[in-house]
Amino acid sequence: MSDVADSPPPAATGRAAGSGARSGAGNVVRLAVAQALGGANSTVVFATGAVVGDMLAPSKTLATLPISIFVVGMSACTLPAGAIARRHGRGAAFMAGTGCGVLVGLLSAWAIVAANFWLFCAAMVFGGAYAAVVFTFRFAAADCVPAARRPRALSAVMAGGVFGGVIGPQLVTHTMNLWTPYLFAASFLAQAAVATLAAAVLSGVRLPRPPAESALGGRPQGRTEGRTEGCSEGRPMSEILRQPRFVVAVICGAVSYLLMNFVMTAAPLAMRLCGHAQEDANLGLQWHVIAMYAPSFVTGRLITRFGAPRVVAAGLVLIGASALVGLGGIDVAHFWLSLILLGLGWNFGFVGASALVLECHRPEERTRVQSVNDFIVFGTVALGSFSSGGLLTGYGWNTVLWVSFVPLALAVAALALSGRARRAPGL
Predict the structure, then answer these.
(1) Cα 273 to Cα 66: distance, rounded to the nearest angstrom
(2) Which of 79, 175, 308, 375 has the highest CB neighbour number within 10 Å of its CB?
(3) Distance of CA 7 to the CA centre of its chain
(4) N- to C-terminal Cα distance for the chain?
(5) Burial track 249-283 (b if 16+ CB lie within 10 A, e otherwise)
(6) C-alpha–C-alpha distance, residues 14 and 34, integer Å
(7) SS3 helix, strand, coil % of the chain, rounded to 5?
(8) How many structural domains is the chain composed of?
């Protein structure tokens, strides 16, 4: 039969294209809602983790260990989440992640009631796994739309985090004293309920399979010996990792997230040590998370207009300004403004770096490359998170801020050098 006969009529093609566009938009909306609900997981942990650690830990130097373990869980689960997505589809990875979201809430509440610090730390592994899956929503949204609209789809999903920034802290504020005398136990039960709601939202997401999977009904094709062009598995990771643009994307993404986590981990406990109320810390964290995600309504357009490297550079400048404001004083206003600038800087730096990653892989390589990127980024964040609490309790808040300039300088240097680097071969 001829190619023409096999092709659908023009009207059918138009209807299919229109249906695909509507489906893609619907998926992006659902992913944005799930991002808002999933973001509450992280904000509840960051608002309470160090405080609960301070209450339960056998040593005050271990107060921020639960948050560090949360970040380790994020790092450790990025590659397994990517493997599940490649083998069974992103939907299966989403359900596994939200299941972990329910577990972290239930186990954390149990740990608080039992006054068991190590059980609380174990629960944080599941919280990190959930957060790792939530961060794949941005790449899933990019799969739903044409290439030209990917930065906007990515940033639209990230914009859902604005509502997560409100839901999480308000969840803590309104539930932390409901189960007397177990401070925050009810907050984690509420967080588990929110994760259940996120699972319901994600159940309606329908994502396209990667080209390599579609060709054989979801089974990867075999690699042709000695060839990468046209290969279903794409290029070797070693070749992809050598791309200058990918190296810069990983460094800038890692530093942006590292510094955000490094400072945010210490901030709620630092505010309490400076005599500020927990409600002030909750509100400061709320504005911080809103600042993390609110720019996403325009970040995609800024990337399209000015390019990802310039947006990343703006983010790094804002992170530096955050540290300078924090060094200026320890009243509530200084903490809040520092956290807001930190959130804005993270958004431009991390979303811009994520957009760079999209330029570094072919369609059949996407889940592999994206999961490796997140593994490197979150692994770096985990290393920084372990040092944050020790620096705060041992040397004070100002030391935390001064140390942040070291990785910031590295990212600025990498971004500056990338302007001279030759672009990797076209994808």
Answers:
(1) 18
(2) 308
(3) 41
(4) 33
(5) bbbbbbbbbbbbbbbbbbbbbbbbebebebebbbb
(6) 30
(7) 80, 0, 20
(8) 1
Q: What is the CATH number of the domain that holds 143?
A: 1.20.1250.20
Q: With both helix axes pointing from N to C terminus, report the angle between 405-418 and 308-327 in degrees, rounded to the nearest 10.
A: 160
pLDDT per position as a tens digit, 148-198: 777 777 777 877 777 877 888 888 888 988 988 898 999 999 999 999 999
Which structural domain range is residue 268 located in?
22-205+234-418
The CA distance from 53 to 269, in Å, is 10
Q: Which pTM was predicted?
A: 0.67
**What b/e readout covers 313-324, taking b as 16+ CB neighbours within 10 angstroms?**
bbbbbbbbbbbe
Model confidence pLDDT, tens digit, residues 352-409: 888 888 777 776 777 778 778 878 887 787 777 777 777 887 888 999 999 999 999 9
CA distances from 389 to 65, 208, 268, 325 (A): 7, 42, 11, 20
Name every residue whose Cβ is closer than 8 Å to that of residue 166 and which is 6 or more positions away in sequence: 286, 289, 290
Asked whether residue 383 is domain-assigned, the answer is yes
71: left (phi over 0), alpha (psi -120 to 50) or beta: alpha
In the chain, the amino acid numbered 294 is: A
Least confident of 4-13, 202-211, 270-279, 341-350: 4-13
Measured distance CA(169)–CA(343) in Å, rounded = 15
Cα–Cα distance, 256 to 344 (Å, whole number): 10
Distances (CA, A) of 423 to 244, 302, 340: 7, 21, 34
Residue 292 structure tokens:
């993390």
Residue 168 lies in a domain: yes
C-beta separation of 246 from 366 below 8 A: no
**Residue 227 and residue 233: Cα distance in Å, rounded?**
11
Residue 406 CB partners (closer than 8 Å, separation 6+): none
Q: Does residue 137 fall inside a structural domain?
A: yes
Assess if residue 218 is contained within a domain.
no
Q: For residue 140, give the amino acid letter.
A: A
| Cα 144–Cα 233–Cα 370 angle in degrees, nearest 5 | 50
- Enclosing H/E stretch for 253: helix 244-273
Q: DSSP letter at 92?
A: H
